[in-house]
Write a structure and sequence with these properties.
- The complex is a heterodimer of chains A (447) and B (112).
- Chain A is mainly α.
- Chain A has 16 helices and two strands.
- In chain A, a hairpin with a 2-residue loop joins strand 1 and strand 2.
- The relative contact order of chain A is 0.13.
- The C terminus of chain A is likely disordered.
- Chain B has a single domain, classed as Alpha-Beta Plaits, CATH 3.30.70.
- Chain B is 20% helix and 36% strand.
- Chain B is built from two helices and six strands; from the N terminus they run βαββββαβ.
- Chain B has a four-stranded antiparallel sheet with strand order 2-5-1-6, with helices on one face. A two-stranded antiparallel sheet of chain B has the order 3-4.
- The radius of gyration of chain B is 17 Å and the shape is elongated.
- The model of chain B has no long low-confidence stretch (mean pLDDT 93).
- The chains are: A mainly alpha (447), B alpha+beta (112).
- Chains A and B meet through helix 9, helix 10 and helix 11 of A and strand 3 and strand 4 of B.
């Protein structure tokens, strides 16, 4: 009897002792936090879904004869960047810093990384996978600018060079320990790294490739808006992984990012539709989803730093701003940014990055900084402006050089005959929608 | 023998086929066409871009018939397809020189 009680007491004491130990995450026992790990892996999958989502979003906007070509471009980016990231992209972006400009080659092929390696509270491999999806979606966004006229071989080479020479350095500058991060620039999930870079690079490419045939004279309209809306829905869904996941932990900050993401998207959808309702007296679904995407872009750099009320203000502003950029500015400056990669991602990302400098607050995220409203001074806003300008300059110039370089060996643009036939047939030998046959009764569905 | 070309509203097609069927007029050829007459154009908007649409979907029905059936068929078409509004369509009548049935090589009236 006495031994039983002694044994029971020992067991209870051990249990109490173990429960009293502080819950160490990462450092002491060197093991990943399971909640955070699960969260990041799922968020990575959500962000991956954004690329096919973007493909559908764009796909519905192009003409029927080119729908497969834009889907192909997006899937090609997914394939190419997935491989490049493992081989060298991750290392260049997140390897040890060299002069604040670029990472290292220590993780080439993801060597020196095991299943036990940690990045904060999650396995490094999870962080790598998560960041990979960001690199992928960034490359896919650019496709919108030169849709319906780019040579496929030139495109593949372009994406490979662009992700290595523009995305990886930029990711390093802002997130990988480079000079913009050191300067104090805030970019929670990629306003500069993802949206400004891809949006402006797209514009540069659109200007170099030139306008689509006949684009000055006739309106080129979407061929399948239900497809576009489906894509937008997948993007909005995936964006929760994009923004909330950037907290890199399944806690309050991720929850805030989730909420402000949804709020800004909803508000921007509303404000874009309001703008076009006033302008043309018709609210369109194309406008609603475009507004939502603009809102999602704008909140991306700010998601972990601003309040829900701030996200409403941002949404109210970015809708009309992007709407005007796409309808008025594009028309006045006469460039053919076919699917408005610059109008939404470039302009929306710029607005978001600067708005972060206004609305950010350390009361919301102590690891952030105080923007103009919280601090009363312009310091953060000027830092954000520096990051924006640096991104424009670097992305623009490098994209220009890459395209000019490729053009030494290949034409960038398809031939006139190929463009008129449609890229699906001329470049890919495929037809998206086969001829509709008469059914057995011989009835045609008319109208 | 005459050929009737009727350009009608797509929504009237089923009813017209049924009415012609009741007359035992079964042979016809149908086309999906775009066209306009007196209708005004309609505006569409895509991201602020205004597009004018001035061609509308119609259906063209072609029927070849014996001369004494002509007025009966025209009356049927008018009864079914006329709503009194702009966009109802038009009927054209042409003479036909020859009709041949490909399967039996018959010519003339018996090929109808």
């Amino acid at each position: 009897m006495k031994t039983e009680i002694k044994r029971l007491f020992t067991v209870m004491a051990t249990v109490v002792f173990l429960m009293a130990l502080p819950r160490t995450v990462g450092a002491a026992e060197n093991s990943a936090d399971p909640g955070n790990t699960a969260f990041i892996l799922l968020c990575s999958a959500l962000v991956m879904l954004m690329t096919p989502g973007l493909a559908l979003f764009y796909g519905g906007m192009v003409r029927k004869k080119n729908v497969l070509s834009i889907l192909m471009q997006c899937f090609a980016v997914l394939a190419i960047v997935s491989i490049q990231w493992v081989l060298c992209g991750y290392s260049l972006a997140f390897g040890s810093d060299h002069s604040g400009l670029i990472g290292s080659l220590e993780f080439l092929g993801l060597q020196n990384i095991t299943t036990d390696s940690l990045a904060g509270s999650i396995p490094q491999l999870a962080f790598i996978g998560f960041q990979l999806m960001f690199a992928v979606i960034t490359g896919a966004i650019i496709c919108g600018s030169f849709a319906e006229r780019m040579n496929f071989t030139a495109f593949i080479i372009f994406i490979l060079l662009w992700t290595t020479l523009v995305y990886d350095p930029l990711a390093h500058w802002v997130w990988g320990g480079g000079w913009l991060g050191q300067l104090g620039a805030l970019d929670f999930a990629g306003g500069t790294v993802v949206h400004i870079s891809s949006g402006f690079s797209g514009l540069v490419a659109a200007l170099i490739l030139g306008r689509r045939l006949g684009q000055e004279k006739e309106a080129i309209v979407p061929h399948n808006l239900p497809m576009t809306v489906t894509g937008a829905a997948l993007l909005w869904f995936g964006w929760f992984g994009f923004n909330a996941g950037s907290a890199l932990a399944a806690e309050g900050l991720a929850s805030l990012a989730f909420l402000v993401t949804n709020t800004c998207a909803a508000t921007a959808a509303f404000s874009w539709v309001a703008a076009e309702w006033i302008h043309h007296r018709k609210p369109t679904v194309f406008g609603a989803v475009s507004g939502a995407i603009a809102g999602l872009v704008a909140i991306t750099p700010a998601a972990g730093f601003v309040s829900p009320l701030s996200s409403i203000i941002m949404g109210l502003l970015v809708g009309p701003i992007c709407y005007l950029a796409i309808s008025k500015m594009k028309e006045k400056l006469a460039y053919d940014d076919s699917l408005d990669a610059f109008g939404i991602h470039g302009v929306g990302g710029t607005f978001g990055a600067l708005a972060t400098g206004v609305f950010a607050s350390t009361a919301i995220n102590p690891a952030g900084a105080d923007g103009f409203l919280a601090s009363g001074d312009l310091h953060l806003l000027l830092v954000q402006l520096t990051a924006v300008v640096a991104t424009y300059a670097f992305a623009g110039i490098t994209t220009f050089l890459i395209l000019k370089f490729i053009n030494l060996f290949l034409p960038l643009r398809v031939s006139r005959a190929e463009e008129e036939m449609g890229l699906d047939l001329s470049l890919h030998g495929e037809d998206a929608y086969s001829q509709v046959d008469l059914n057995d009764d011989g009835q045609i569905l008319a109208g | 023998m005459k050929k009737i070309e009727a350009i009608i509203r797509p929504t009237k097609l089923e009813e017209l086929k049924q009415a012609l069927n009741d007359l035992e007029v079964r042979g016809m050829t149908i086309y999906n066409v775009m066209g306009r007459g007196l209708q005004k154009d309609v505006k569409q908007y895509y991201r602020g871009q205004e597009v004018s649409v001035d061609l509308f979907s119609k259906v063209k029905v072609e029927i070849v018939c014996r001369d004494h059936w002509l007025e009966k068929i025209i009356a049927t078409i008018l009864k079914v397809c006329s709503t009194g509004s702009i966009g109802d369509g038009k009927i054209f009548v042409y003479p036909v020189d020859e009709i041949i049935r490909i399967s039996s090589k018959e010519r003339g009236d018996s090929a109808l």
